[in-house]
Amino acid sequence: MAAIRAPSSAFLSAFLPVARASLFPHTPTPILRGIPLLQQLRTSFIPAALAPIPVLLGDLWDGLLNAVPKKKTSHMKKRHRFMAGKALKDVTALNKCSACGRAKRAHVLCPYCVQSIKRWFSNGFKGKDELDAERDQRNQQINEERRIRGQKPIDWAVDEEDSARARSKRDGQSM
Known about the structure:
- This protein is mainly alpha-helical.
- The chain folds into two domains: 58 residues, no CATH class; 77 residues, no CATH class.
- The protein has ten helices and two strands; from the N terminus they run αααααααββααα.
- A two-stranded antiparallel ribbon has the order 1-2.
- α2 crosses α4.
- The chain starts with 8 loop residues before the first helix and ends with a helix.
- It is found in: Mitochondrion.
């Protein structure tokens, strides 16, 4: 530990006039004469102002030095401590949707029904028959354009079967 030096007289004269007056009694200060309470307390100020910190703490100093972790707490242990009691809980409030019959959380809209409503809004409130008719008309226009350009028309029924087969194959592999 580094050597502890006593404060200089310049420090005492600038910051601690009470301590300086008690150290050098032949130079009375006007502050002490004017306040009798400071004359009584000046003896208690001197040891606290001049004593080094370890002496003041005494036996507590060893305890303060030992109250330090030996190793850094790992990220995993820290997260385990912070997340104690905050695990995911099982969902017990499940109901059956009155519209589609699928399981849904209580007091929450059925996500499947909401999706179908969104789809209905995006289609302009058209039914499946109207959408199929529009798709057939669009496919016929594309085939007419291909005939005009001299290309072979597309057989949309075969393409739909291929895409349905590919979709079922993809869904079967993902499960």
